[in-house]
Amino acid sequence: MADREERRFAEVPRESVKLMAESAGVELGDDVAALLAEDVCYRLREATQSSSQFMRHAKRRKLTVEDFNRALRWSNVEAICGYGAQDALPFRSVKEGELFFIEDRDINLVELALATNIPKGCAETMVRVNVSYLDGKGNLEPQGTVPSAVQSLSDDLLKYYQQITRAILGEDPHLMKVALLDLQSNSKIAALLPYFVYVISGVKSVSHDLEQLNRLLHMVKSLVQNPYLYLGSYVRSLVSSVMYCILEPLAASINPLNDHWTLRDYAALLLSHIFWTHGDLVSGLYHQILLSLQKVLSDPVRPLCSHYGAVVGLHALGWKAVERVLYPHLPAYWANLQAVLDDYSVSNAQVKADGHKVYGAILVAVERLLKMKALSLSQSAEGGFSSQPGSVVGALGYGVSSPGLSPPPEPLSEAALGIASHLQAGGAGCPWEEWTPVPLPAMYCELYSFFGDSLAVRFSTGPGFGSYPPCTPPQPNDARKDPPGPAANPDTTRKMPQLTANLNISPRQDGSPRTEPPPPSLAATGPGRSLARSSSSSSSVQRSRSSSSRSGQRSAGPSRDVFPKARFTTPQTGPPAFSFLIGGRQMGRRCQGRRPFQTIFAPTPPLSAVLPRTYAHKLPVIGRVGKPVRRWACSHYSLHLPL
Amino acid sequence: MAAVQGGLIDTEEEKDIKTEPANDGCGNNNNNNTANDGRLLNASPGSISSGGSNKPATGALEDQQTLLAVLQFLKKNNLSESVEILRREAGLSEDTEDSKGLDSSGAGSGGAAGNVDSESGDANSLLSRVSVSSSAVSASAVQAPSKAGAGEDQPDVNVVLSAYSQQGDPALYDVYYSSLKKFIESVLDCHRAELSQVFYPLFVHMYLELVYNNHENEAKAFFEKFSGDQECYYEDDLRVLSGMTKKEHMRGNETLLDFRTSKFVLRISRDSYQLLKRHLQERQNNQIWNIIQEHLYIDIFDGMPRSKSQIDAMSGSLAGEAKREANKAKVFYGLLKEPEIEVPLDDEDEEAENEEGKPKKKKPKKDSMGSKSKKQDPNAPSQNRIPLPELKDSDKLDKIMYMKEATKRIRLGPDTLPSICFYSFLNAYQGLTAVDVTDDSSLIAGGFADSTVRVWSVTPKKLRKVKSAADLSLIDKESDDVLERIMDEKTASESKILYGHSGPVYGISFSPDRNYLLSSSEDGTVRLWSLQTFTCLVGYKGHNYPVWDTQFSPYGYYFVSGGHDRVARLWATDHYQPLRMFSGHLADITCTRFHPNSNYVATGSSDRTIRLWDVLNGNCVRIFTGHKGPIHALAFSPNGKFLASGATDGRVLLWDIGHGLMIGELKGHTDTIYSLKFSRDGEILASGSMDNTVRLWDAMKAFDDLETDDFTAATGHIHLPENSQELLLGTYMSKSTPVVHLHFTRRNLLLAAGAYNP
Fold this sequence. Notes:
Chain A is mainly α and 643 residues long. Chain A contains 24 helices and 3 strands. Chain A is elongated, with a radius of gyration of 33 Å. Chain B is α+β, with helices and mostly antiparallel strands. Chains A and B meet through α2, α3 and β3 of A and α12, β3, β5 and β29 of B.
């Protein structure tokens, strides 16, 4: 028997038989044991074969202990008890004796009997019907009802769920805040996750209601931040809801008064947060996000607000994403954007305003790209922790094929809000230029050809700045904020005022948001050689709400003053020597005000100097404006700017 | 003549079987089988071997054989002097003995065994007799000289001799088999496929003989060497065989019993058969010839040899193909005439008539005018061939409802596939084993492995019990809504649980009038439940082993059950004993279905055959072979002409009942098919499987393509078109939910059911 090479069956060796006999107090000879062993094997096989028909008739694939016992019973053999438990039996071995055995723990019956944690019976068996295939249309995905948490949902949870959703979607802001906070910290709501995710997926049905969208996004944020929740594959669903808010031409955006821009910004911020914290749950998520952003960006039929969303989203995902997707796509896109912006007809005004938004977003993204790239280069040159940002980000970066086409200006809902661009021309970088390897200058050159002077790269204070990148990966928020420095304010004197002034109906109280390109007092026109110059852009801010603001006013210098102020506070300490010019006064204020909602461009303390670049290009400065400052008082931050 | 055995006997033997309660399942079957075999032996082998060599010689030759055998025995025992003497006295030359001795002695023993077989009616006795005789080997060996010298006790001597000769040459099995193999491989292509059929049964019997004679090592070697040559669809049986290497194990092994007690049936053309016979005679390959004589039934036909694919299509069952005679009986597959019922809104739809209707022998009132429009189907049995219950008023109402629904029925086709609803059993941790849905799709019932039966209402109408007797006495029996008043509103619920079985419930069936529910269980009983009181009414005991399936007749009253004891039983709800027993399957009966006209019952079995039984006389009128695994699903087409079957091999086979032919093969499923259902008009066949899919097949096309020329019908040789892919209309996946049951509603919506299996 032993010499048989191919073993078709489990075989019981004679040694085992002997052992068992010994344990029963019988001494067996070798030949007897061998015979017995063989017979045991055969009986085992026989029982297994007859037990398999019980399995077949029970319409199962898995042979159970019960099946085997039935077979034994029907062949008049005593059934084997004690192996019916569902959990696997631990199979142990003792090295010394070459013994293998199944662990058989003693059970303390008293303890068991008095145990207080009485297991609940399983839920009631029920029949549920679902119409799976209408008219015989085939399906690719398996369908069917999956009894997830439904049946096990306790009344308490159900109540909780109702209360929470009611509070979040209800009127009372205080309640909402409490609800969101709880959602963020409650450790017992795992069973409800699918329901919340489902509720959130309702974004598509409330795309007309910015407020509701906002609340749903907050819900996403709370769920994402809840440390007790394992999102699993629900991440995908959440991401798609968020992406919806970023990219879709929401119904709410038809009304120019609705500040859907902020929503998009916030959603983009959220996206990056989800991605950074939970991106590992779903493989290929980053790639998918990039692809869909790229698809939107390269789709000329999409309205400008969608493009805006795509740019903001890319920006939020980090400079690598910008480099991969936006940058190669820029030349194609540029032409169309330019066409929009160059159209001065009244009918085009709204579209043009939107175009400016996009322009501003691109500019910010690109500027951060330049800065980060430079930084990573410089840091890698310096060694040390510098490698961190690069590597981390780099790890995420997938190659993304350069996007295709130009987006033709698509008429769309007018930009409701003023546009404030707090882009500043930083002392473009002489210093860092030196360190940059070839691609960077090339990139800069190309970008410069688009943006001209409005492209400014500003470094925040060396140390502060330096500290950012490393912390970006873990904290997307920071990543978001770190564009602070580099805000390029392109402003072209001639166009800007008109554009923005006309468009803006922003109810802001503060004066003309519009910052004129300040006389380029760019001190730091730098040492840079290849960089055309340090460009200082005036931070042109369009206040959408400030209808009062006149174009004239905006063009006025004073408005700019704030801007530089802020920036000046953080003079660059890094090796590169920059000097900044103050672009505009009001900018700073505005930035602060803007911060809550325009998260992407949230001004960090350091602000770059503004250098009004002459108008190499026709492009106007694009301002961006969020909602009125008041609305977003600090008290609300906890909700709206959680990140 | 051969076809009928099982059934005829069953009816007669009913008494015996019942009186012998315990442990009798197998025994009885074997009784029947061997009895049949015995009969066959008398007739068929004679005819087959009439041209053969060994018959004519009988008298003188057998004597000589005996002598030769004795000589050998003496030689072996080194009794050389006796050998000399005997040889001298018998006048045998040395060389005849050597060359012929073994073979002829083998032949002799074979013949003898055959005789034993044919004379004894009892299968069990076969084994016991052989074993007795084998023990006699040693005993008689001592007295061999004297006994052999006498030579008058033919059977005994022959048994001894057979054991003797086999003892001598276990190694020769290998040689025999190889030489036959070589021969078959060298014959013309057209014969090779046919002759190759011989391999498997020969292999099995040779192996068993080796094992039986305690040549364990030779048996293993033999198995190792040749098991790889066998067709892959015998894999399961081979596995059982390979596990059996000891003589002691042969006792009580069911598979083995099947081989020993039933003849393996082969269909071979006359030419091929002649070739084989000639070869075996030339080579004196008597060992093999004996096995062929003894254990094989060769059904010879005139005409072209069949091709490999034709053979493969039909083979695969435990006992070879069905004999052609087995499928010759006339089957009345037509539908019964429908009763004439006045339909309030009279839409004449021809669809209604396709469906089975309630028969009514004499329908007093109502219009009898409609009868002329539907004249009696020539293939239908007479209306009262089987007595059927009279229609009750409620049945008529239901019939009217049915017709109304039928007018709204969607006509299905390849372009208009049905919508599918899936009933998922959630939290069915106890194991869902069977499902049934009422014809009007208002109730669904599940049988579970925890011995319960659960009934759900799938309409808003809740399930209610009838009030208790005390309460019933209080209600006003004259009121119009008395039927409503008898129901106890307090008990209304969506589902009811029926407790009573003591083992998993494997089969379940609603009565057509929705008043009763049948369930069959591992505990060996079939239970009848009332859906008015939700209590058990009767427990039908008869099967002493697990009952795998049960089904109500389409007209109610009768039901059929089948199980592990290999006997299908026909019952009437008001009899506690079965009315008919259908015996003949060689292994468990796994599923049972009623023909739409209620005159026939189809059973599928683990022996990989399907049998059709006549309810009237209990005869087996059809045997369908071709499946390569146990059959788990059967479905009659609504017009009664066709049968579809599904098995663990994942294939659906289509059968023409009238001609007794396989007419189609639907490949696509990757796992056991547990449910089959034709759409109400028979255009679509739906199949549900363990592989979590529902597949729809174009049944119309499958049946249209059928070429039933006379030749095919006469010979049973079919050419199956390879058109599964064209016939497959759709594949629908569920989410880890094996499809246990399928049902077309009266409007042709497809309902599927299964338990979610995380």
